[in-house]
Design brief:
Blueprint: E1 20-23, E2 28-31, E3 34-35, H1 36-42, H2 45-54, H3 60-72, H4 78-89, H5 94-105, H6 119-144, H7 158-167, H8 173-186, H9 193-203, H10 208-219, H11 227-241, H12 245-254, H13 272-288, H14 292-307, H15 319-329, H16 337-358
Antiparallel strand pairs: 1-2, 2-3
Helix pairs in contact: 1-8, 2-16, 3-6, 4-5, 4-6, 5-6, 5-10, 6-7, 6-16, 7-8, 8-13, 8-15, 8-16, 9-10, 9-16, 10-16, 11-15, 12-14, 13-15
Bound molecules: carboxymethyl coenzyme *A (CMC).
Carboxymethyl coenzyme *A binds near residues 225, 265, 315 and 320.
């Protein structure tokens, strides 16, 4: 038995997976062998979900059937809507509202009694959850604005329909494609903290609702999914400071601030997803004629990499560094960025639950005990 503690499980292999692989030195990410750049360029999010959950790309017929099933499953019931209204009135954070609503979805699950070992039932449940997450998020946003929720539009794809339900207007092609790409890019990423969390829950043979609910909780933290919102808050801070962005980042690093959107446990070079989102951010900026947010990000990146030498230390932009400015330019509220990450990553969580439960073993590590030994009991009045 190992007696050396691997803090943060860094470098520890806990499972085999065929879903995604990261080459942290080359800056490459693949889903089931397909390069993330090709998937972002060529596929839709629905196609990527199929690939992750079924192991291969769908044929045209398979994709049409799968998309129809997902489209039919977008609606949420009145109890979940009431819960969301209450949470919106209570000014709950969107990630917490999502966590609560996903947990509540199981009450309306038609296969609620299915054995968690029935992987086909788990796949269908996972599909239902994934189909409903955009509806939950958009309804919550509308409720907290004091408006009625917008019903899903079956004519629109998963990404475009989310933007439609969020804003009440069908998005243009650029917005719809950008959102679809963002969903593809965030769908899976090896055993990140939230995926591992979902797997730990699934390894007890708990059901997929519990696994996804737990995954949402893990994703919400600032060291994981919460960083995309933090990046945008930094960009807004730069703007409000009225400082030159270069002076701002110089001062921030002199003060010892850690800039969100930089650094990664696995990548030692720029995250390939950041590269793709940077291009989207630049395109949106050029199209609107307002390049401010894009310029702030590139100035900060250049300073941190060249003058602070972070790249030599293996600390480079991660996916969150450019997603913030992309979502901002799409007009999405800042506290919806991490929920959008969840809206995509739910695909990865479900994929890993299916894969792990197929050959399940309870995940149960150990801690090296460093506490006291042989203490004599002290009665309460003598303490
Ligand atoms: N800016 C400056 N220095 C950094 C940064 C940063 N953003 N991130 C890490 N470092 C330094 C850190 O100070 C440490 O240096 P030293 O060894 O000299 O003390 C070294 O890099 C290792 O840092 P660590 O925190 O021990 O590394 P980790 O592997 O535990 O953390 C991380 C990875 C993502 C938590 C960390 O890089 C971080 O806090 N980044 C900012 C938050 C962020 O962007 N999170 C999103 C991650 S990607 C999307 C996702 O998976 O959700």
């Amino acid at each position: 038995m190992l007696d050396e503690v691997q803090k943060g499980l860094e470098g520890v292999l806990v499972a085999e997976s065929g879903l995604s692989s990261i080459d942290g030195d080359a800056g490459r990410l693949i889903y089931r062998g397909y390069d993330i750049g090709d998937l972002a360029e060529e596929a839709t999010y629905e196609e990527v979900l199929y690939l992750l959950w079924h192991g291969e790309l769908p044929t045209r017929e398979e994709l049409a059937r799968f998309t129809d099933e997902m489209t039919e499953e977008r609606t949420i019931d009145d109890d979940v809507r009431r819960t969301l209204r209450g949470l919106a009135d209570a000014e709950e954070a969107p990630m917490a509202a999502l966590r609560t609503a996903v947990s509540a979805l199981s009450a309306d699950e038609p296969e609620g009694d299915a054995d968690p070992a029935d992987l086909e039932a788990t796949r269908r449940k996972g599909r239902r959850i994934t189909a409903k997450v955009p509806t939950i998020l958009a309804a919550f946003e509308r409720y907290r604005l004091g408006e009625e929720a917008v019903s899903p539009d079956p004519e629109l794809g998963h990404a475009a329909n989310f933007l439609y339900m969020l804003t009440g207007e069908a998005p243009d092609d650029v917005a719809a494609e950008t959102m679809d790409q963002a969903l593809i890019l965030h769908a899976d990423h090896g055993l990140n903290a939230s995926t591992f969390t979902a797997m730990v829950v699934a390894s007890t043979m708990a059901d997929v609702y519990s696994a996804v609910t737990a995954g949402i909780g893990a994703l919400s933290g600032p060291l994981h999914g919460g960083a995309n919102q933090d990046v945008m808050e930094v960009l807004l801070e730069v703007d409000e400071s009225k400082m030159d962005p270069l002076d701002w980042v110089r001062t921030a690093t002199d003060e010892g601030r850690r800039i969100p959107g930089f650094g990664h446990r696995v990548y030692n070079v720029k995250d390939p997803r950041a590269q793709i989102l940077q291009e989207r951010s630049e395109e949106l900026a050029d199209a609107s004629g307002d390049t401010k947010w894009y310029d702030y990000t590139t100035t900060i990146e250049e300073y941190l990499t060249e003058e602070e030498g972070l790249v030599e230390k293996g600390i480079a932009p991660n996916v969150d560094f450019y997603s913030g400015s992309v979502y901002y330019q799409l007009g999405i509220p800042v506290d919806m960025y991490t929920p959008i990450f969840a809206m995509s990553r739910v695909g990865g969580w479900v994929g890993h639950v299916l894969e792990y439960q197929e050959d399940n073993r309870l995940i149960r590590p150990r801690a090296r005990y460093v506490g006291a030994e042989d203490e004599a009991w002290v009665p309460i009045d003598e303490r």
